[in-house]
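The methods section describes the discrete structure representation at length, but only in general terms. What matters is that the chain and its backbone geometry are given together, residue for residue. For illustration, here is how one protein appears when written out as sequence plus structure tokens:
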Amino acid sequence: MEQFLAGRRVVLVKFVAHRHKEIQNKAKRTVGVVNLYEVQCADGKAPTVQTWCPRSVQSLEHAAKECACPFTEGQRLVVEFDLMEPNQFDAKNGVIIRATSVQAVE
């Protein structure tokens, strides 16, 4: 685990829930599907973690088959991220983490 964490920007969280969301361009054409993980941090904050599904996944039905969530409720995760920014779609928490990887600790 120490080798994985060395030099990376990470946060340790507890997994709460998962869903998929289609991302569309201005012409309302689907350009991809993202995984959205609702998580709980140790300080009480509850950001949403976003990772992209593979480019071959272009619908929610396909995402449900190909990108099923491997985590269980309450499982501890390590989230590696590049940046944190305000997200207008998440009014409850105001933060989305655009993650490069999400891995289970246990």
About this structure: The domain at 2-104 is CATH 2.40.50.140 (OB fold (Dihydrolipoamide Acetyltransferase, E2P)). The CA atoms of residues 35 and 98 lie 10 Å apart. The chain has a mean pLDDT of 81.
